[in-house]
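// run 5 | inverse folding | seed 20
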């Protein structure tokens, strides 16, 4: 196959002998790219390509998607069911039945001895939606623990909490097409080119055509900041101050949209009174952005016909994460920028199906944004599932970040980890390790058997991954897309859905509750439960979704019956003719007093530690650390350090240094760059036993999400560079 110039140095793409292409949705980030995996004559996945007619990615894939076919037979895949009495003993291979019996018996033993909530379940944003829904039914309807959460608390719970506080429900109002209509874009703590490369491409293409101003607010000169018209290098953790100051300018200069505010919101008086305190002169001293820039950005944003805000972990992973989201929503609401083309407040989600778990897992409540606190919701779901409504708790249980302290204190004795690896992903690894060691029983269900958390398991259940399974996922813009089985799970491994159904059989002794085997049937059950809800998917089915390469919710049965084509289904929610989810249909404007409660640098620990993602890797590298090309680009832990700071400390480019925080230490390579300020370092979070040895992870009071990006460290030089290199290599190893 030849691309580019045919006369001179044409680009040659190796012929891998593909005889068939199979469709799926990418299983890494929440962009939701449509992908096809090529199989050779032996049925082996050998290639990946983007799907041209899919609206999300229009034929493109990023570095992770392009190598996704290598996942199926990557190192460390779990192929055997394993069991042992204590976590420090060697594993014994076993069959599914004894292992699943043990899981059932241990859950019930712990619940009977210590109470129903003494057994906790932590799920993920990586499974398929039908699997989330089934796990939710099993947990809420049969097992009956309230300590059930997902690892999405580590990345998205501030967005969820902020949306709920402002609009009455979770659910991002906008879509990628908004880039094609907006007149001003603010990116708050979002580095699209590395975190969501294909969304970046959509944004960049729209921006090049229409030339709207791009304003990036981020303490670091990220790749997105390098491409921005204005970069505001804000002091970590002070976004709320900047938002309040912008609203101060907007009200002061009469730039707000009074008609929209009066028709659609409550709380304007209280908000105006709060932001009156935040004049730009005072705010500049706290957030580090000068007063003229604050005024300019406020005017640019408020005067544009349609303004859009996007954000990612820079906002969410903070002690003010939920407030930051509410602040962005406040700005959108006071300027009438919700639910209109180019005017929105769009949370760019993290994991491939973080949205699916938010909508359907029942982690924080009940399916389709129903809440445990509402008796009508409890009754509705109990009747639908054929369970006793009194079996449901009346308020949500612990978040993942509170489950670990509860293990430490002895309140929780047993744990089921599903496709998540807290030993790598939770802050303050030393505390997490102690908690894992203290569990009476732990079952790890994962497609990889070599995760750090699996070391502490008593039972290991090998699961299928991504396109070894059948179901749907929801992306950032509420688009549901399908994943079809491309390969079979290896060895004894089984799809997560099969595992949940087998566990359910053991709890569902009188067969009262129905657990369908086929994901298409489960999806149909979900469509019924969605009727009339915000996330109404009653007009969808697997075939229609695949045919259209994804459909955005809501898409109702009425829309299907009237022949409305799915792509127009649900581009935006909270449009002018659709009210907010609060009972009076109005959004809330919420005043946000700033409380400075972060860990901050001091004499002993003088550097801000900022953590984040690199384009090559995904989360804890459980997958990408084993894929040749992905790993080769970024194989070892390193820091970005300002060249002046490096010179003062006597650190040369490529030297190993020791980072020390009040928690622990880590050895990394130093890469001097002007991307970071002199009092800050940036450390990619992917490498195990590295970034989270250092982080404190103070929690947001509303969302319980940890502040991964605001810790304090010092940097020490290392005399023995050879030994340091060895240590650093150990951190990269699996
Ligand atoms: Fe996959 Fe995200 Fe890359 Fe698209 S942008 S190919 S969804 S990792």
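// decoded
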């Amino acid at each position: 196959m030849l691309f580019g110039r045919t006369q001179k140095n044409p680009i040659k793409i190796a012929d891998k002998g593909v005889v068939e292409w199979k469709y799926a949705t990418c299983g890494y980030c929440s962009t939701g790219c449509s992908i096809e995996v090529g199989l050779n004559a032996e049925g082996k996945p050998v290639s990946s390509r983007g799907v041209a007619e899919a609206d999300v990615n229009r034929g493109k894939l990023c570095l992770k998607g392009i190598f996704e076919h290598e996942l199926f037979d990557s190192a460390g895949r779990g192929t055997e069911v394993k069991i042992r009495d204590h976590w420090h003993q060697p594993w014994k291979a076993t069959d599914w039945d004894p292992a699943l019996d043990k899981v059932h018996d241990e859950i019930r033993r712990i619940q009977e001895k210590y109470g129903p909530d003494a057994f906790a379940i932590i799920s993920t944003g990586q499974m398929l939606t039908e699997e989330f829904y089934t796990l939710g039914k099993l947990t809420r309807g049969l097992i009956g623990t309230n300590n059930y959460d997902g690892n999405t608390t580590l990345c998205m719970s501030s967005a969820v909490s902020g949306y709920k506080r402002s609009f009455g429900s979770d659910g991002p109002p906008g879509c990628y097409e908004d880039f094609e209509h907006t007149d001003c874009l603010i990116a708050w703590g979002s580095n699209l080119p590395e975190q969501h490369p294909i969304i970046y491409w959509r944004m960049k293409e729209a921006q090049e055509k229409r030339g709207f101003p791009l304003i990036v607010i981020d303490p670091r000169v990220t790749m997105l900041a390098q491409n921005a018209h204005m970069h505001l290098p804000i002091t970590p953790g002070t976004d709320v101050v900047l938002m309040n100051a912008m609203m101060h300018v907007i009200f002061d200069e009469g730039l707000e949209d009074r008609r929209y505010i009066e028709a659609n919101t409550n709380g304007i008086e209280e908000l105006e009174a709060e932001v009156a305190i935040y004049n730009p002169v005072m705010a500049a001293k706290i957030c580090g952005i000068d007063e003229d820039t604050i005024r300019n950005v406020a005017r640019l944003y408020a005067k544009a016909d349609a303004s859009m805000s996007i954000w990612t972990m820079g906002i969410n992973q903070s002690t003010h994460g939920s407030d930051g989201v509410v602040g962005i929503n406040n700005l959108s609401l006071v300027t009438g920028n919700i639910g209109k083309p180019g005017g929105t407040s769009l949370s760019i989600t993290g994991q491939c199906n973080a949205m699916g778990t938010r909508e359907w897992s029942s982690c924080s409540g009940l399916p389709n944004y129903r809440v445990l606190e509402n008796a009508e919701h409890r009754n509705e779901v109990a009747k639908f599932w054929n369970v006793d409504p009194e079996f449901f708790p009346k308020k949500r249980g612990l978040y993942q970040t509170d489950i670990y302290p509860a293990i430490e204190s002895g309140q929780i004795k047993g744990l089921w980890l599903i496709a998540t690896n807290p030993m790598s992903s939770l802050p303050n690894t030393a505390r997490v390790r102690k908690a894992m060691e203290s569990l009476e029983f732990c079952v790890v269900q994962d497609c990889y058997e070599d995760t750090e958390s699996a070391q502490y398991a008593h039972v290991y259940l090998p699961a299928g991954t991504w396109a070894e399974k059948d179901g749907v996922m929801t992306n950032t813009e509420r688009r549901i897309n399908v994943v079809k089985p491309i390969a079979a799970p290896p060895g004894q491994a089984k799809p997560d859905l099969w595992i949940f159904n087998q566990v359910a059989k053991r709890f569902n002794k009188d067969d009262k509750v129905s657990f369908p085997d086929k994901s298409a049937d489960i999806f149909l059950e979900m469509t019924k439960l969605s009727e009339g809800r915000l996330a109404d998917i009653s007009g969808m089915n697997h075939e229609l979704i695949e045919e259209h390469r994804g459909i955005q919710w809501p898409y109702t049965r009425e829309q299907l019956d009237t022949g409305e084509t799915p792509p127009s289904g649900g581009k935006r929610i909270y449009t002018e003719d659709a009210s907010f989810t609060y009972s009076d249909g109005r959004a809330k404007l919420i005043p946000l007093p700033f409380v400075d409660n972060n860990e901050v640098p001091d004499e002993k620990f003088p550097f801000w530690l900022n953590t984040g993602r690199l384009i090559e890797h995904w989360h804890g590298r459980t997958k990408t650390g084993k894929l040749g090309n992905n790993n080769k680009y970024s194989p070892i832990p390193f820091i970005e350090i300002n060249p002046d700071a490096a010179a003062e400390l006597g650190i040369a480019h490529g030297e190993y240094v020791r980072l020390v925080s009040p928690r622990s230490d880590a050895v990394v390579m130093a890469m001097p760059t002007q991307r970071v300020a002199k009092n800050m370092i940036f450390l990619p979070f992917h490498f195990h036993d590295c970034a989270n040895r250092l982080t404190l992870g103070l929690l947001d009071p509303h969302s319980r999400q940890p502040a991964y990006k605001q810790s304090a460290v010092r940097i020490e030089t290392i005399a023995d560079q050879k030994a340091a290199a060895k240590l650093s290599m150990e951190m990269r190893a699996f």
